[in-house]
Amino acid sequence: MHRLLWNTCKCYVFHKKWLFLWAFVCGCIYGLTSGLGLPLIFEKVFRRIFESSTVYSYAEIIGMAVLIPLGFALRGISGYLNVVLMNRCGLYVLSHLRTDLIEKLQMLQLSFFDRNTTGDLVHRVIADPKKIQDILLEWISEGIKQPLQMLAAFGSLIYLSIKNSSVALFLVFCVSIPFCFLPVRLLRSRVKKYSRIQQCTEGALTAQVSENLNAVQEVRLFNLAERVKLKMQETIEAAALATNLVVAWQKLQQPIMEVVSAIIIAVVFTYAYCAKVPFSVFSAMGMALYLAFDPIKRLNTLFGSLQGVTGSIERIGEILRQVPTIQSPANPYLGACSGSITFQAVSFRYSNKTPSVIHQVDGIMEKHKFYALVGPSGAGKTTLIKLITRLYDVTDGAILMDGVDIRQWDLKHLRQQISIVSQSTILFNDTFLENLRLGSPNATREEIIEAAKMAYAHDFICEAGGYDSRIGENGNRFSGGQRQRLAIARAFLKRAPILILDEATSALDSESEALIKKSLDTIRKQKTVIAIAHRISTIQQADCIWVFEKGSLVGKGTHEELLKTNFRYQQLVSKQLIGGSQPKSN
Ligand SMILES: Nc1ncnc2c1ncn2[C@@H]1O[C@H](COP(=O)(O)OP(=O)(O)O)[C@@H](O)[C@H]1O
Ligand SMILES: [Mg+2]
């Protein structure tokens, strides 16, 4: 368990070793002044003042008395510095842990996200590291101070016992120590179990909240408010139950420990009275006893909270241990790209447990030609695009670009060659300019405006306040058609040799679509264009149409050829609707 925490955090500790070291030194000073300094000062001062026959001058008395505030001052300052420095260390670990998690998530293949909900991942990046920060802060600060204080106080007890022939006192202390750690041992497994459940239910809760916020419209339109509330209530109650159980078991340690230490202290006092121990020794030993027991109490609590954070460490570890399966190879291909794509017996399944969704697709897409992919919804068209862009890797076969397997390409370089307008348009809460510049960070203002004009987005951008005005959260105030036009402008701007349009004009009215088609005509001579579309008007223009059915390529050819020879295509055309979603009004 400690190893798990240490393994998760050690690289950050090494980065800030000097800060940790200073915090450690301050913790040591605190522990030593508490456990050793204070009891010895008290013994010395009390003996001289109350029990010595020598008459001291006022100056000498004051000189001795001053030792007490000095001891406390040293303890206070070192304790304070330890906390402040540890806080900085803890924040450093927190921020780097979060950054590393986010970095890892950016690299991970999409299949990982198919298995984990967004909300749960948000919880793992935000809440779980915070728990680790808290425990680390407590551990490194208390984990140095308390054991040292305990050992030092233990040392002063030995010293005082031997010096004052009170060995029995010391023996009582030794025998009692194992009992003090008993509560932690007894309750550990339960705390661990419920803390894991607690973190998982809280993750599920975050997932539900984010899911609901993403579907506010649907919740209202389908009158789901009551159902959503009940479902959330269930999760909230499960999370509350787990938290209650963690707290109940964790907090049980404290009273057990206190009763055990109170029994020991009572025995010590009784002994001191019977053995007629002098006041100076009695008070100093009493203090040493307190200073030795207090750390045990705190360490017990600390062990308890360490069990409580196990769930978070495991959940974070699950992400950090993931090895991205889709990466650039060791010596990646970084050459030029003309835009030809070859499919060699490509098959694909989303996971080992699900059936194959692409079967044995063979074919060549030549450069600077226009390809249309058609087929009913669920036929595998979008999946094929995901394979070209390496969002997923083929399960069997290979995809080649310019004759080189895309798995040999540098991943960034590969994606730079492809402009894509996907089914859903993601817009960021930034200016129009920045949203359009997304795929081409170096584009000038003029180039951006030109691309927006080609995508017939210029007019509505001007009406909405111009290129420097903000889009608003996810561009919610714009219609589906307007959002698509922004996405198309973004793709035009990227100037990549391959342009992919996945139902990119589905939300456009026929007039806008016709205008965009005109723009496409001007650029398609320099690009390989792959369009998944359902309108015959778009498809007819294609140099070659690929017909998909249940993941298989069942026909290839021009509109006229397929109309004559391909039954499946004839069916699609006769329905006047080829695959995908229904055309929506703008
Ligand atoms: N992330 C995913 N995980 C598992 N199955 C998926 C995933 N995405 C799509 N599928 C399945 O793959 C098949 C093909 O989907 P898709 O390529 O989106 O079809 P199309 O674009 O032709 O409508 C469908 O059966 C769909 O349910
Ligand atoms: Mg699709």
Overview of the molecule:
With 586 residues, the protein is an alpha/beta fold. It has two domains: 7-320, ABC transporter transmembrane region fold (Up-down Bundle), CATH 1.20.1560.10; 335-417 and 535-586, P-loop containing nucleotide triphosphate hydrolases (Rossmann fold), CATH 3.40.50. 65% of the residues lie in helices and 10% in strands. Strands 6-7-8-3-9-10 form a six-stranded mixed sheet, with helices on both faces. Strand 9 (544-549) and strand 10 (552-557) form a beta hairpin. Helix 6 (118-163) runs antiparallel to helix 11 (279-308). It is elongated. The two termini are 57 Å apart. The structure holds adenosine-5'-diphosphate and magnesium ion. The site of magnesium ion (MG) has 4 residues, from helix 13.
Span of the ends, CA to CA: 57 Å
How many strands appear in the DSSP assignment? 10
Low-confidence stretches: 578-586
Strand content: 5-15%
Helix percent reads: 55-70%
Integer-rounded radius of gyration: 35 Å
The small-molecule ligands in this entry are: adenosine-5'-diphosphate, magnesium ion
Please report the number of helical segments: 22
Average pLDDT, all residues: 84
Summed up, the domain count is 2
Shape: elongated
Q: Give me the CATH architecture of the largest domain, please.
A: Up-down Bundle
* CATH class label of the largest domain: Mainly Alpha
Strand order of the largest sheet: 6-7-8-3-9-10
The secondary structure category is alpha/beta
Q: Could you describe the largest sheet, including whether it forms a barrel? A: 6 strands, mixed
The CATH superfamily label of the largest domain reads: ABC transporter type 1, transmembrane domain
* CATH fold-level assignment of the largest domain: ABC transporter transmembrane region fold
